[in-house]
Design a protein that fits this description.
Layout: E1 3-14, E2 17-28, E3 32-37, H1 43-51, E4 58-63, E5 66-67, H2 73-79, E6 81-84, H3 96-103, H4 111-123, H5 125-129, H6 140-152, E7 158-162, H7 170-185, E8 189-193, H8 197-203, E9 206-211, E10 214-220, H9 221-225, H10 228-235
Parallel strand pairs: 3-8, 3-9, 6-7, 7-8
Antiparallel strand pairs: 1-2, 1-4, 4-5, 9-10
Helix pairs in contact: 3-6
Length: about 240
């Protein structure tokens, strides 16, 4: 499976703070890859580095064989990378429809735009019922659906999700993860930072574990779910199937 996205010896800093330390990831075309780790270990910095919000101090970020670390965020979106940001980050005073429109800001309206709207509506029927509702008045689960729908409107090949289950009820968590699996089956690659390790590993193909900015474990999701160190650190006493 060819790499769609690759980090090669990436280092990032915030001033004197060394956040990512010689990090290497590879995300293959068609995979779901999860990134696990505790607070302040570099997970969100990884996502910001992919989207160009944070620039590496050394190393390369390669998408489809092309280094992108010097490209703008807009150019990365045009090339096929879309984010689902931590805490949704919708435009709260805009309607659901207007938020979805913003996902397609790098594209012209036309038949493809309408096709993509129809795809979002099929994945999220509730969104279609609330198109004219101001997005800031939606529940957390509904806002996450709009955030994922907004990313899909960019027609991405890769979606980078930062904590998609954060702040959601258990029912919405299950719905969101099932939708992530469906989107992947439809052909979109997913790279996902997630605190809910058990849910993340239940749908991922592979995973990486970060500790203090370094990759300390990687492998298939099924192997990591059965790793005693992972179970103790992230999965507790949950029964793994």
């Amino acid at each position: 499976m060819p790499d769609m996205l690759r980090f090669h010896d990436v280092n990032t800093h915030y001033g004197d703070l060394h956040v990512l330390k010689d990090v290497n990831y590879s995300i293959g075309d068609g995979e779901i890859v999860s990134l696990l780790g505790g607070n302040a270990c570099g997970k969100s910095t990884t996502m910001k580095t992919i989207m160009g919000v944070v620039r590496p101090t050394s190393g390369s970020v390669i998408f489809d064989g092309v280094p992108i670390e010097k490209m703008s965020t807009a150019e990365r979106v045009r090339r096929g990378i879309a984010p689902v940001l931590e805490a949704r980050r919708l435009f709260p005073r805009m309607t659901v429809y207007e938020n979805l429109e913003m996902g397609a800001y790098t594209r012209k309206h036309g038949p493809e735009f309408e096709q993509d709207l129809d795809r979002v509506y099929s994945l999220f029927p509730r969104i279609k019922e609330r198109l004219n509702q101001v997005s800031g008045t939606l529940s957390g689960g509904e806002q996450q659906m709009v955030a994922i729908g907004r990313a899909l409107m960019a027609r991405p090949r890769l979606i980078c999700m930062d904590e998609p289950s954060m702040g959601l009820s258990p029912l919405y968590v299950e719905q969101v993860f099932e939708i992530i699996r469906t989107i992947n089956r439809q052909g979109t690659t997913i790279f996902m930072v997630e605190q809910n390790a058990n849910m993340a590993l239940s749908i991922a193909h592979r995973a990486y574990v970060l500790q203090t900015g370094k990759v300390v474990l990687s492998g298939s999701a099924s192997e990591l779910r059965r790793d005693p160190a992972i179970r103790e650190a992230y999965l507790g006493e949950l029964q793994l199937t």
